Records
---
Amino acid sequence: MRAVRRGLREGGAMAAARDPPEVSLREATQRKLRRFSELRGKLVAPGEFWDIVAITAADEKQELAYNQQLSEKLKRKELPLGVQYHVFVDPAEAKIGNGGSTLCALQRLEKLYGDKWNSFTILLIHSGGYSQRLPNASALGKIFTALPLGNPIYQMLELKLAMYIDFPLHMNPGILVTCADDIELYSIGEFEFIRFDKPGFTALAHPSSLTIGTTHGVFVLDPFDDLKHRDLEYRSCHRFLHKPSIEKMYQFNAVCRPGIFCQQDFAGGDIADLKVDSDYVYTDSLFYMDHKSAKMLLAFYEKIGTLSCEIDAYGDFLQALGPGATVEYTRNTSNVVKEGSELVEMRQRIFHLLKGTSLNVIVLNNSKFYHIGTTEEYLFYFTSDNSLKSELGLQSITFSIFPDIPECSCKTSCIIQSILDSRCSIAPGSVVEYSRLGPDVSVGENCIISGSYIPTKAALPAHSFVCSLSLKMNRCLKYSTMAFGVQDNLKKSVKTLSDIKLLQFFGVCFLSCLEIWNLKVTEELFSGNKTCLSLWTARIFPVCSSLSDSVTISLKMLNAVKNKSAFSLNSYKLLSIEEMLIYKDVEDMITYREQIFLEISLKSDLI
């Protein structure tokens, strides 16, 4: 699991007179949220906000879903107005990574605006994945993940815009590149600003443990003579290391010696304190490139024509920067998901293109970086982690009709834009979003329920994941509900049918589950690539004519596995999650959410 990174550095002799770092962080975050709230639905003045906000999408279906949701948000005045919002889709049938998506976005900007975009401040949010580790975000996108915050509720898009609210005012024309599933919180001095005004690339840096550094980018900073410890420091970077080993961190002088207090909160519940005698590193989050650097990358992309391999915006762009960068990293493919034949050659061409470009680093010593990209992280931060709840003002119940839900000291349930009957019960540690639950519905601990309707008696076992999708099949509206365990690995794949016994569904051998459901092991059981067999591509989820029937049948198949009792799926049309996303009816899913919104609004007005 990817942990939260938190760095707290005391401010020298001034520390005693200042608020504690955690108080400063919370107050700075709340100020940004208030400022963004003031801009929602308002026409922003030139230079007051981003000129362009662009979101990347993996395919045309995702592009359509994103555009529909942006249109709804603008219609409901949930976003600042007078801004150009775009969705840029990757080329068809191509997996090009977020680096490739960045290049495509630059090309789209050039086509849309010509030379005009050389004076724009642009926010580019990478949201092109299928969110296989957090599937309730798969259909409508990670950047539209709902948060237990705000009225109307915030999604990740609004939170990103709020946390970056100060950036455009102090930024030269260029592009800020970020990802859809992380949150950066920071506090700096009252009269300080984060300035993106230097040529080349500029990245934010957060103090982190060496262990965290092995799964992120790590900066090798030039020596710093200032003995005072500040929340905000502008530093130059000698080189950038991408997911280095601890040994390499020491080898390349990335490790900073004692003199800082830094604490790490791990999502698994472990807490490792970096006290004054602990070594630490500075790790990455988002980065900015000035317009000149963006134009250089665009010219390169137009020269090569098409990409046939995955490029990492962090690993392949940033590792080429700084005076200490060397070409050796281009041959290291240990961190690459899919190694293409042209990958090394493409990396080397990017290295020689960017070699000599400066990498400036903005060190944020009182900052936090949260990643919410897995079911485990999602449940932890929304139900158990008091730090994020305090900093953002997250609520246990957000814009919902709900019964009295008991809270325990360690964790609570989280209800987001949902209607719950007063007689249903939700155990601590569970999240319910965009759903209706009737009487006699019992939800166990650590469950996720999304987009569902359960009107009749039902019991969801602890650690269940249930997410319903509207489908358009042969011009008819249908429904299907994916159901499995929150800890199931949907990405794990095997190459042959004989190996599917290595897959697990709700902690049970998948082969045993197929026997319980009376399904035969054939190639037709899986969609897509027949040499990449996984829970993601397994055709096991029934298609139904109503939303409630869809949830009921999928819960029966889930409970059958839990109780080891037979439940035949033979009579149903079955889809994989992969296919559900192909058939998804975005408009109907948005309509369902809107119906819940209107009913809650009406009842709130009557109270």
---
Amino acid sequence: MAVPTIRPQFLCFFLFLAVTAVHSRFLSSSTENPSSDPVSDGVHDGGWNQTSPYYHLLLKSEEPVVTESCEQSYGFMPCTTTALGNFFLIIVYGYLMFLAATYLSNGSELLLEILGPGIVGGLFLPALGALPDAMLIMVSGLSGSVETAQSQVSVGMGLLAGSTVMLLTLIWGTCILVGKCDIRESDSIAIDGQDTKGMHLTASGVSTDIWTCYAARIMAISVIPFVIVQFPQMIHSTAGRQVAVLIGLVVSVSMLISYCLYQVFQPWVQRRRLAFAKHKHVISGILKHLKQRSLGRLLDDDGEPDREVIRKLFGTIDQDKDNYVSAAELKALIIGITFEEINFDRDDAVAKVMSDFDSSLDAKIDENEFVHGITKWLNEAKRAGSGTAPDAGPRTMKFINDYHMQTKREHTLLGAEQETEQSDEVIEEVENPRWISFKAVLMLMLGTAIAGAFADPLVDAVDNFSAATSIPTFFISFIALPLATNSSEAVSAIIFATRKKFRTASLTFSELYGAVTMNNVLCLSVFLAIVYIRGLVWDFSSEVLVILIVCLVMGAFASFRTTFPLWTASIAFLLYPFSLALVYVLDYVFGWS
């Protein structure tokens, strides 16, 4: 019979509770029961005589000493008023929040393994990832009276801003550094697993798919509720602030629902886009093949499709000379073409080409349909090219080659390689799904319970540490708390990036942008709901400005490019100290707060 073992983190946790409980009990007893015995001179048992010249000095010495006291969370959690003690509490409670985030992450992955993507991947996983942050924000605004909540709500805003800034600066830049590969000159895409350029600022970097660009754009759009709430202060108006908070809350919740629905339906949209990209690549491959086989030029002297040459090509494809190209003959043509690094279903490609050409719907292509179809393809290739009118000479081959390379790059950026890798992997059935499901639910419940139990003590420890050190709570929560609540996501992202593959890089940066989006919609929704319900004052101009700058700069940066050379990491790293300095200058030099 196996002997059950106790995990080290739980043993440390219980030892911490025992030691700090005894320590806090000792502090409270010494504060509440100070010694009040009179000082004796050894002669008069009753103490000092009123005629003594030292009597008034004795009275001053016997005045009660005013000591600061701390309020224990839940009436039994340890607390202290010293800076070192609260620093220790922040570390311990922060580790417990990290543990909660880890359990939520692991439980979510197990649940995804059982139930698959869709509702789980689109609704539950993003919300569970932001749950620790949301709980800390919630308890920071629900603590005690309105005055107490107003003073502690800056902890929630510091966490919200700190999480966003840390993910988009320190973690983003680190992923570029550890995931860099050599950038291919022909199409400016990083080569999987090849890292020979070292720390070259332009020839080494990371590439992602086009869906990662869409995730970055959604992240940039998600800052709209911040602008709405901040609008009255932007126009220096004190009226309508609560209305602006309510409007921002409605917009934030609406964007949260829309984002979750997008996550649910994104796989279907992605498959449709990828199928269309493959069809375009088949078109470009057929055009390139026909040009090589053509008995003349595909374009005439005016740069228009040469119908006579196209008719001759029809005769070479019509092998049985019945004046029709059948599906079998079309498939033989496609099989004979080499499509570089592109995997697709030949039968599906034949069906799509047939649907492009067969206007009579008789399941075969006559000469006029073939000429019309090839002419349409050539015109599409010209429009997608450089925009200059091609001539009948070598430029004919050039614009077809350019169109072929363009469709190949589009195919790659849509994540086709990711789909190929997934199809090549051996898919194993989950063993004992009941136990895995039970384990996943247990981890999710445990993570939620830990986050809910220790969020309030962590906020109190931050507030007490701020009072003991005179450091504003915003800066403490901005720097320290994201290390606890986002460490699991950060470590996972960095580990994924070290694999140095196009697929894992796309997943890594998509997860970072998704986490920031959930901060901007879910966590902000919780924050605005608390501000509106409790009637708190929205006075976070500098913090909102930092969030806007970082999200818009990195969002614009990642929305319109798919390859990030090594020099881009320096921009991300510089934004972190810039954010801290900007808040300090605006709040304590210009007096914004």
